[in-house]
Amino acid sequence: MNVGLIIPPILALVLAPLLLGIINRTKAVFAGRVGSPLLQPYYDLRKLLGKGAVYSKTTTWVFRAGPIVSLAALVVATLIVPFGGCAAVLSFPGDLILFAYLLGLARLFTVLAALDTGSSFEDMGASREVLFSALAEPVLFLGIAALAREAGQVSLTHIPLADPRPFLSLTQVLVAVALLVVLLCENCRIPIDDPNTHLELTMIHEVMVLDHGGPDLAFILYGAALKLWLFGAVILSLLLPAMNLILGILLALAGMLVLAVLVGVIESTMARLRLLRVPQLLIGAATFSALALVLELGRNSP
Amino acid sequence: MSSINDLILVIFVLTNFSLLGASQMGACVRLSAAQGMLLCPLPLLLPQDGFSLRSLLFAVGLFAVKGIVFPRLLFRTLRTVNIRHEVEPFVGYTASLLAGIGILALSLWVAGGLQLPTSQQLSPLVLPIALSTILTGLFLIVGRRKALMQVVGYLVMENGIYIFGIAVAQEVPFLVETGILLDVFVAVFLMGIAIFHINRQFDHIDVEKLTSLKD
Predict the structure, then answer these.
(1) More confidently predicted of A196 and A142
(2) With 90 as the cut, is the pLDDT of residue A203 above it?
(3) CB B94 to CB A280 under 8 A?
């Protein structure tokens, strides 16, 4: 087995929480604060893992399985996502669909665990999460379909390798914009959701995990970081030209840094949209993806 | 060369979508003006026509009329009628955007079946985008409540027909092009005056209520 293959998952597992640290630092700089240390998410995770967990008597095994299944699904997803010039450990035609639905499985169990508590507050968050992810999914699929059509490949690893070009094509730019919106939505970032609010009626993701504590919360936090990393890696691998191993990885790491700072800038400069406007934003992103697909279909048809 | 055309056309489609999603009439007027300005380089980029004095003059005229005169006329109307500057759609913004995607897909399908002598050198996307722009304009005319949006929809439709003309007819006589431009100018001018009078007579420019009028 090629040693290069295990680099993407290891990088993802080790560096994912750092992304959250970078985002928080960016926001702190914008707000004129010093901000928490870059490694703060790691400290949080260690602290949480050292604690015990408290479970409500009304909950069932679903509540306990939620964080574990979610994290497991995300860890499996790291195996099929390439990074920079590195191929993924597993790649086969159609693995992009497996990727989307591994994330879907993780989301399903978070939602089920939230519903299992029977708290109406958490149910509301669950309902919103499902609504918005249902709207985000077509954006993701239409966008990836456009790129797959352009490359003539249906595997996350092979799409970037098919057409090495120095410049981004129009399709790639459109899809990148659409996928950025999906990233913000899936990772509960402003303008869709505010990761900092714990007491507002408009929050989505944070409300679902209110009843988790200790190691479970650590799993959820780590899973969130991993999800952000995976989405970033997918976007970057679809956009960056194929290169040799070392250069590709360095470029992709720089790209992740830029992406994290970009998310931080978006969070600092924008307010969260009203909930009614969120579907409109996602449909807007869908128009970008659909346009990219139409562009590809129109170009290839005689 | 083809990538510049594609870029212009893609930005053009994006303006179509933002027109469908825009909630302020001022923004819609600006977007329709931007569309007109986007179109003027297209005749210059036609491969066989090339960079002649004729096409240059026409591009400048197009820019002046669609990019400067029309928005001024429409903004003046908007000021004089003095109403709320919201579009107030019959079909909601989200539904409009979805309809826009549907229109784009439909146009691609229809354009694929049409056997027209399109100028493939410009871009294979010209025909579907022209059709989708015409349909988007039609949708704006049907789906919006304020009479000013009907004018904007008419302008969008005209832009679509213009692209269609570029796609199908390689060589449109200069006289015809100028004539169309003049017609559109007069139409927008008259529609502005008509809207002003409708507003003065009835205190609104809501097209839904116009159906219940009697003489």
Answers:
(1) A142
(2) no
(3) yes
**pLDDT of A70 over the 50 cut:** yes
Total number of residues shown for chain A: 302
CA distances from residue B137 to A18, A134, B154, B196 in whole angstroms, order as listed? 48, 29, 6, 22
Distance CA B62, CA B69 (A): 10
Tokens of B180: 């169309």
- Mean per-residue pLDDT, A23-46: 92
What residues pair up with B144 in beta bridges, in sequence order? B89
User: Least CB-CB distance to A299: which of B17, B93, B124?
Assistant: B124
Chain B residue with minimal CA distance to A282?
Answer: B94
User: Which element (helix H / strand E) includes B188?
Assistant: helix B174-202
Domain ranges in chain A? 3-296
CB–CB of A280 and B21 under 8 A?
Answer: yes
SS3 content of chain A, % helix, strand, coil (to 5): 70, 0, 30
User: With an 8 Å Cβ cutoff, are A301 and B112 in contact?
Assistant: yes
Within 13 Å, how many C-alpha atoms sit on residue B171's CB side? 4
Residue with tokens 């680099």: A7
B125-177 pLDDT, tens digit per residue, is 788 888 999 999 999 999 888 888 888 999 999 999 888 887 776 666 677 77
Highest mean pLDDT among A154-168, A211-225, B104-118: A211-225
Supply A148's token pair.
């797959």
Nearest to A280 by CA among B94, B28, B102: B94
Tell me the CA distances in angstroms from B160 to A28, B35, B36, B133, B135, one per residue in order: 48, 10, 10, 5, 8
Q: What is the residue-averaged pLDDT of chain A? A: 86
Which residue, A110, A128, A16, is CA-closest to A70?
A110
Question: Which residues in chain B have their CB less than 8 angstroms from residue A299's CB?
Answer: 124-125
Q: pLDDT digit string (tens) for B80-99?
A: 887 777 877 888 888 999 99
Dihedrals phi, psi of B121, to nearest 5 degrees: -65, -30
Q: Which residues of B touch A298 (CB under 8 A)?
A: 108, 111, 124-125, 128
Query: CA distances (Å), B14 to each of A237, A290, B94, B138, in order?
Result: 25, 11, 15, 17
Confidence class of residue A302 from pLDDT cuts 50, 70 and 90?
very low
Flag whether the ipTM exceeds 0.95: no
